[in-house]
Amino acid sequence: MGSVAANVAELDGSKFNITRSTNLRDVPLPGSPEELSHSHCTDHMVTVKWTAANGWETPEVKPYQNLSIPPTASVLHYATECFEGMKVYRGYDGKLRLFRPDCNGERLNSSSQRSSLPGFKYDEVKKLVAKLLQIDGPRWLPNPGSFLYIRPTVIGNGPHLGVQVPKEALLFIIAVPWPDFTKMKKDPEAEPRKGLRLYASSPDTIRAWPGGFGYAKLGANYGPSLQAHGKAQALGFDQILWLFGPDRQVTEAGASNFFIIWHNTEGKLELVTAPLENQLILPGVTRRSVLELVRERLSQNFVGKLAPLEAVERTLTIDDIEKASKEGRIVESFVSGTAYFITPVAMIQNENTDINTLGANGEPAGYAAQIKSWLEAIMFGKEEHDWAYTIENEEK
Question: How far apart are CA 74 and CA 156, in angstroms?
Answer without folding.
Answer: 5
